Amino acid sequence: MSDDAATLNSSAREESGAHVETSSPLDRIPKNKLVLGLFLPMQEGAWSPSRAPRTTSWTFDYLSKCTLKAEELGFDLAFGLAQWMSKGGYGGEMRFREHELDPIIVNTALAAMTKKIVLINTVHILYAWHPLHLAKFGAALDHISGGRWGVNVVTGYKPSEYRMFGLDMIEHDLRYDMADEFTTLLERLWAEDENLTFNGRWWKTEKAFLAPRPGARRPFLVNAASSGAGLAYAAKHSDLIFITSPGGAEPAKAYETLPPVNSRIKDLAASYGRQVKTIINPHVICRPTEKEAQEAYRRILEHEDPVAADNFVQTFVGGDTKSWRGHSRAQWVIGGNVHLVGTPEQIVEGFVKLQAAGCDGVQVNFFDYLPDLAYFGESVIPLMKQAGLRA
After folding, report:
1. Within 13 Å of residue 265, how many CA atoms lie on the same side as its CB?
2. Cis peptide leading into 212, omega within 30 of 0?
3. Where is this region: Disordered (predicted)?
4. Can you state the angle between helices 228-237 and 172-191, rounded to 10 degrees?
5. CB contact at 8 A, 165 and 128
6. Measured between alpha carbons, how far is 11 from 361 in angstroms, rounded to an integer?
7. Pairing of strands 149-154, 338-342
8. 25 vs 18, 82, 221, CA distance in Å?
9. Which of the residues 56, 192, 246, 251 has the least number of beta carbons within 10 Å of its own beta carbon?
10. What is the C-alpha to C-alpha distance for residues 315 and 299, in angstroms, rounded to an integer?
């Protein structure tokens, strides 16, 4: 083929939506020292089984306002969790997390409403999904969003969720072997320009083909990992890895225990010839004074729904997941992985220390989302820029 013909063929492939590059999707995120994400309150009650007054809602109107505000403020990411709950959710008077909008559906709508922010949603891939389903849905979302969509690949760890789909619980490490095969097939479907036949241990396909495929770079692949098997999967496939603090939610313990976690993940990724970013989930309670912030913190605890809180904690600590083991019951009532409570200056100081501990990003959640997010934008983001964390 002549040079001119090769150039023409490359241009035609690019115009048709063919995969012409394999560079990391992370290249789409602005080069800030600290990635900034918002953990959307997709579930009723979000992360806090507390009945303290707040506006936070799981409705699409509320979620869209949060996402549009985050985009206006320059957030890089907005993330939606997925869950499968029985009637009453985690129980209690508040029926904690009974209501939820499915995040992949929400993100489809948000993709048409936003222009810059990256939209990531969870999919439990072992709950009767086939990689071809996700490849096709993901390619469509990639086009709708202009390359701003990603999937948080989750295997699931709750026996109750598996039973909802008529499935038996799968052993921990085997789940990640299955996820590896699933994601390998998913990535091939996104990348290859011919019919694909694949005969794996768990998934098979004959003459599968996607048109259109994603654009120049595949969608973001994300997951949360802490176990050996989970980290091995993440290092091989994921671009962005959610991490938890082994020391619990108390900031000083998080700053102390996070560096080896981040180093291990990045060394594992390097062994595959890859670079990844790690991101952690701080619950931010920010007020003009430290006294006001601490009062807001105590108010959440004083209004806890004890039944909902007990059930919420037990679900996480009673399974085979390795994450969140260092968190106390009270820290679960507040929600989030690290608690940053204080003035705008103290919040930014916490972000600086998390970045120094090796975290590439923070994905924040709030108790009263819209007013807390507005105050964060007004008072915290300017200080993040002064600290060199954001451009």
Report:
1. 30
2. yes
3. 1-25
4. 10
5. yes
6. 35
7. unpaired
8. 15, 22, 8
9. 192
10. 24
| Residue-range domain boundaries for the chain | 30-386
Q: Which residue has the tokens 């975290």?
A: 359
Enter the DSSP assignment of 32.
-
Contact 355, 34 (CB under 8 A): yes
Q: How far apart are the first and last CA of the chain?
A: 45
Q: CA-CA distance, 139 to 149, in Å (whole number)?
A: 9
Residue for token pair 């990531």: 120
DSSP class of residue 28?
A: G
Angle between helices 228-237 and 251-271 (to 10 degrees): 60
Assigned CATH class of 30-386: alpha beta
Q: By percentage, how much of the chain surpasses pLDDT 90?
A: 87
Q: Which of 203, 209, 170 is nearest to 185 (CA)?
A: 203
For 150-159, how does the pLDDT look when each residue is reduced to its tens digit (9 = 90+)? 999 999 999 9
Task: Write the pLDDT tens digit of every residue in 341-379.
Answer: 999 999 999 999 999 999 999 999 999 999 999 999 999
Q: Where are the beta strands (DSSP E) in 127-231?
A: 149-154, 196-199, 204-208, 220-224
The tens digit of pLDDT for each residue in 110-137 reads 999 999 999 999 999 999 999 999 999 9
SS3 154: strand
